[in-house]
TrEMBL record, chain A:
GO biological-process terms attached to the record: fatty acid biosynthetic process; secondary metabolite biosynthetic process
Matches recorded under CDD domains: KAS_III (cd00830)
Xref: SUPFAM superfamilies: Thiolase-like
Annotated ranges, domain Beta-ketoacyl-[acyl-carrier-protein] synthase III C-terminal: 239-316
Span of domain Beta-ketoacyl-[acyl-carrier-protein] synthase III N-terminal: 104-167
Record's keyword terms, sorted: Acyltransferase, Transferase
Descriptive protein name: Uncharacterized protein
MF GO annotations: 3-oxoacyl-[acyl-carrier-protein] synthase activity
One Pfam short name: ACP_syn_III_C
From TrEMBL, chain B:
Top-level taxon in the UniProt lineage: Bacteria
PROSITE patterns on file: CARRIER
Domain Carrier residue range list: 1-72
InterPro entries attached to this UniProt entry: ACP-like_sf, PP-bd_ACP
Gene3D superfamilies: ACP-like (1.10.1200.10)
SUPFAM superfamilies the record matches: ACP-like
Native source organism of the sequence: Lacrimispora algidixylanolytica
Name the record gives this protein: Carrier domain-containing protein
Length: 319, 75
């Protein structure tokens, strides 16, 4: 079996409140909190995705008291990589001195953290001793700063998880899903082989875009289904539910559909906004550092995002 | 003005197929926040204060152009 040994996070120090988004008229800034429960977010200044990912990994190594040379695998879940190639994970490997590891990226957008846990779990079962999943995202550089439909709702951040064959939480059940018919719903159109730089006609194509209404309905539907499926398959009532932190209203709607009180959901979207693939692991880290975690044994994770992709996980405290 | 509105709408709603006779809410990526973005860009482009109530989702782009042209004439 695979277990979570420890978690860590890194958020850039540059905190930006809704009022500081002065590119938007004041009357619209208040909509941001109304629409998504977001009050502020963190943005990098000069750093890139590997820089903040490496900060999270360094904190994880220090917190866990493990030698970097003991890490066998580093998986970086990111949808805002440093460059199209090579893998962002390789620069994190170099910065952190993980000389005996092999490193690679995976991109399942906001579900990336859960996908990373699944791959890491499989590698542990395959014989790897210590695997790190780092989810790192710098969306502030993918977003059009003048677009009120996207820019205010995302932030930058990273979280790292150390997995091994022993630890504090057993990864009991991990479910992954995708529906490629929705591959255009959330996207950065330009820069890849479908729309290379030489063929771009509109600057907007370099920026992140999404169909807001469709994403909202997808997230509420799949988030609810995941939680109900995890409860049914494992015959357990979760003490705590940690979903992707995209929008407070999505979390509330998932609670309504599953008849689970809002108090049982861990929520930090108001502080960091949507940190994409990193959000569920940042929330997991903050939860594990909280007093509540000491008293609770059963945790569900659920994430949903571009692809379309979604995934969930049941974490059971190792008694 | 209609041509400028159509150019802005095509860009904001990422929809090359909308026509002057299309209703705003029929645009491909229409949602409440993209509508806000559209109003912000209209206000900038035509250098006028446009209230949310003046841009109704059920009106066509041609009707919107007429309304904004009338407002500009009064200015």
């Amino acid at each position: 079996m695979a277990f979570i040994v420890n978690t860590a996070q890194y958020l850039p120090v540059n905190e930006i409140s809704n009022d500081e988004l002065t590119q938007f008229p004041p009357k619209y800034r208040q909509l941001i909190e109304e629409k998504a429960g977001i009050k502020k977010r963190r943005h990098v200044t000069d750093e890139c995705t590997s820089d903040i990912g490496a900060m999270a990994v360094k904190q994880l190594l220090e917190k866990s008291g493990i030698n970097p040379l003991e890490i066998d695998v580093l998986i970086c879940a990111t949808s805002s990589p440093d460059r199209i190639q090579p893998a962002t994970a390789t620069r994190i490997q170099d910065i952190c001195g993980l000389e005996n590891a092999y490193a690679f990226d995976l991109n399942s957008v906001c579900s990336g953290g859960i996908y990373g846990l699944k791959i890491a779990s499989s590698l542990i079962k395959d014989g790897a001793k210590n695997v790190i999943v780092v989810a790192s995202e710098v969306y502030s550089k993918l977003l059009n700063p003048k677009d009120i439909a996207t820019f205010p709702y995302f932030g930058d951040g990273a979280a790292a998880v150390l997995l091994s064959d022993h630890g504090i939480y057993e990864l009991n059940d991990i479910l992954l899903f995708s529906d490629g018919s929705g591959c255009d719903v959330i996207q950065v159109p330009a820069g890849g082989s479908m729309l290379p730089a030489s063929a771009v006609k509109k600057d907007r194509d370099y920026y992140f875009s999404m169909e807001g209404q469709r994403v909202y309905h997808f997230a509420c539907e799949k988030g609810s289904e995941l939680i109900e499926l995890l409860a049914k398959r494992n015959e357990v009532v979760a003490d705590r539910i940690i979903t992707h932190q995209a929008n407070l209203n999505i979390i509330k709607e998932i609670g309504r559909r599953t008849s689970i009180p809002e108090e049982r959901f861990f929520i930090n979207v108001e502080k960091y906004a949507n940190t994409a693939g990193a959000s569920v692991l940042i929330a997991l880290n903050e939860y594990l550092e909280s007093e509540e975690a000491k008293k609770e044994d059963h945790v569900f994770l659920a994430a949903f995002g571009g692809g379309l992709s979604w995934g969930g996980c049941y974490l059971k405290k190792n008694m | 003005m209609l041509n400028e509105i159509m150019t802005l709408a095509t860009d904001v709603f990422e929809d090359d197929d909308i026509l002057p006779t299309s209703r705003l809410e029929e645009a491909k990526r229409f949602d409440s926040m993209n509508l806000v973005q559209f109003i912000i860009e209209l206000s900038d482009a035509f250098e006028m204060d446009i209230e949310d109530e003046e841009v109704e989702k059920t009106m066509t782009f041609a009707e919107l152009a007429k309304r904004l042209e009338a407002k500009k004439r009064l200015k």
